[in-house]
Amino acid sequence: MKRVLFAWELGDGLGHVSRLLPIATVLKDNGVVCAFAVRNLIVPHSMIARAGFRVFQAPLVAPYAPPEVRDKVIASIGDVLATVGYIEPDKLTALTDGWAAIIDSFDPDLLIADYSPTAGLAAFGERPVVPIGDWFTLPPGNWSEFRTFKDAPNRVEPARLLETVQEVQRRRGKAVPDRVPALMHGARNFVVTIPELDPYHSFRENTESSPLRPLSAPATQEPVQDYFAYLSCGYAGTQKVLEALAASSWTGDLYLRDANTEIRTQWRKRGLTIHDAPQPMEQAVANARVVIHHGGNGTLEQVLAVGRPQCIVPRHFEQQKNGEYLGKLGSATVMKSSNRFQPEHIAEAVSAVLTQERFAANARIAAADLERRGPFNLLARITDYVLSTLNAR
Length: 393
Prior knowledge:
The chain is an alpha/beta fold and about 400 residues long. The protein has helices at about 15-30, 40-50, 75-80, 90-105, 115-125, 160-170, 235-245, 260-270, 280-285, 295-305, 315-330, 345-355, 355-375, 380-390; strands at about 5-10, 35-40, 55, 110-115, 130-135, 190, 205-210, 225-230, 250-255, 275, 290-295, 310, 330-335. A 7-stranded parallel sheet has the order 3-2-1-4-5-6-7, with helices on both faces. Strands 10-9-8-11-12-13 form a 6-stranded parallel sheet, with helices on both faces.
């Protein structure tokens, strides 16, 4: 039987596993044995195990910027890699060997990698890799080096990253890549988002861009409450959002990712309705006049499709850029990811959406446009490609 390993190395949240799991399910239904190697065992474990897949702990990457680059702005994916070992041959060798041990143990015929450059390095030249991701986690692999996405120089010269990668491969006696972006390219790759959310769309080769599955239809019901919020407890700005909601007269509910019972109880005493588990997103979004979240691609697309305005509270640059796209559509208010905002700024942003009809009108227009362009189904394209590749081996 053919075997596929799903890899998730960098990033956080449920989004990476959420887009890998449907692919694994289709492959499993077609007789492929699948397993996962994930960055965070705890958060997605029940989802993966419930679906019947083995789960490995991926080599744990602890971001750390060396002193000479610590105070500089991260301006490219290359700078992200510099903070997780790509300018330290000993560290990157350890991480690559860790991935190689998992790969050799499971012995897959193919890897599907989401934001997993070191898994790509461990498999380079030996096993086919199919990268998937969004614009930030999957930059064009045909570039000679990672380009900056900010008006700032790279923290680290791209040549230094390449020198480290090549040194690691020479130590391991393995194939040596001629450029670092090749680790995130593969023979074919897939960007799991609408092209408008991919600023690199025109630069890509051997790539398809689309939502993974057909998006929800625009809501036909009227909202029954003011807000639904999907937030991370691990983000410092989340407490400011909760303060604003608790002090308001708005009706609504929320899911607080990574929160324990004590934290949920604390906010329930302040009058908030907090669910213990994630809610069915389509209905939760349709119920609300505004959806408050961090700006992850999956959530953003779901809310766009249903046709509800959004209030984006970004945790990092990628989500800030996603929010800017919504801002251009006129269907959202967007906080700054610097976390300098206060509860009163959140209250103003949410209030603007609730009181100004243009936000709801623009959200309905955007939803109708997505419905006209659909149905999207990148899942079928990915699984067809993977199955044909497996059958040819």
